[in-house]
Structures are given as C-alpha cells and as structure tokens.
Amino acid sequence: MTLDQDMQVLPEVPVLDLAFEVRLKFSPLPKMEDTPGGGRKGIVVVEAGTFRGPLLNGTVVPSSGGDFATFRSDGVVMLDARYMLLEEDGTAIFLYNRGFVWGRSPDVMPRFSRVAAGHPDASVEPSEYYFRTMTSFDAPKGKHDWLTRHAFIGAGARLKDGNLVRYYKIG
Fold it and tell me: What is the second-level CATH architecture of the domain 16-170?
C-alpha cells in the first residue's frame, strides 16, 4: 500500500466528550528537597471533593488518595494522582492520573506555587500554564465499567484551595 492508501484506512481524528469535572481540596504534607533522583517531591492528600458532568456525578472520598508530585529542575511538575470517587448510585471508582504542569513563561510557576500554598494575594490564569493529565479508571462490572474501556485526558486549573480538572473521554 502507498502512504495515501494507508491514510485512507486509518481511523478518523478522535472526538473528545466531556465526561465530568472534579473539584478537589487538598491537605499538603511536607516536601522532600533535593532528592538523589533530582528535584523535589511533594504529596497532597485529598481532603474533599465533588464531581459533576453528563456522564458521572458524586463525591470524592476524603483521604482516599492524593497527588504525588515531582518538581523537576526544568520547572515542570510531574503529577501522579490516585483517589476514589463515589458515584451518586453508590459505585466506588478509582481514578489514576499521570500528568504535567508547566508555565508558559518563566514567571508563571513561582506564582502557581504561591496560589497552591494558599497566598491570598497570588493569582495565575489557566491560560498561563499547561495542566494536562492522562487518566484511567478502575470500576466494578456493570453500569460504570465503560470507564475501564476508554482513554481519557484531563485539563486542569489550580484554585486557591485545590484543583479543578475536566475529564474528557476520547472517542
């Protein structure tokens, strides 16, 4: 086959469908500075949260997980978040995130950190940084097992008391 013929049989460009958005509140723990692998490590524990959307609604189970972040020397924050959702129908769902946050200019991440630390005078607009996740789920067989068969991405924003992340199912 030629390249043109190969291109004709490839699947169409994926569509993104909003599944839900989650609002999280965190309790920070102390950071580890200057680790042998480079950079710093930090953990925030999920204190509370809710999620709403066309495909899922419910609450985030308090203390069910958190975000284990690596702060790289190049200014990128690598996210590794895991926590439990409780759907309105009582179904427990595990969420797994890997992602990245970085500033679009050198002054952004210091301000982002001040917002994350809860400084009342700090602000940063979501357009000033990249906050994306690659997300997967574990769910029991039944009504919500469709979550385990799709790929998802998240687009996030840092708020003074936590994160807002919109999750999109890749169609």
Answer: Beta Barrel (2.40)
Residue 92, token pair as written in the block: 């427990």
Q: What is the mean pLDDT of the chain?
A: 92
- Distances in Å between the Cα of 110 and the Cα atoms of 16, 32, 81, 138, 142 are 31, 18, 21, 35, 44
pLDDT, tens digit, for every residue of 84-116? 999 999 999 999 999 999 999 999 999 998 898
> Contact 23/154 with Cβ under 8 angstroms?
no
Q: Tell me the whole-structure pTM to 2 decimals.
A: 0.90
Q: What is the C-alpha radius of gyration for the chain, rounded to an integer number of angstroms?
A: 18
Question: What is the largest distance, in Å, between two alpha-carbon atoms of the chain?
Answer: 61
Domain ranges of the chain: 16-170
d(C-alpha 164, C-alpha 154), whole Å:
10
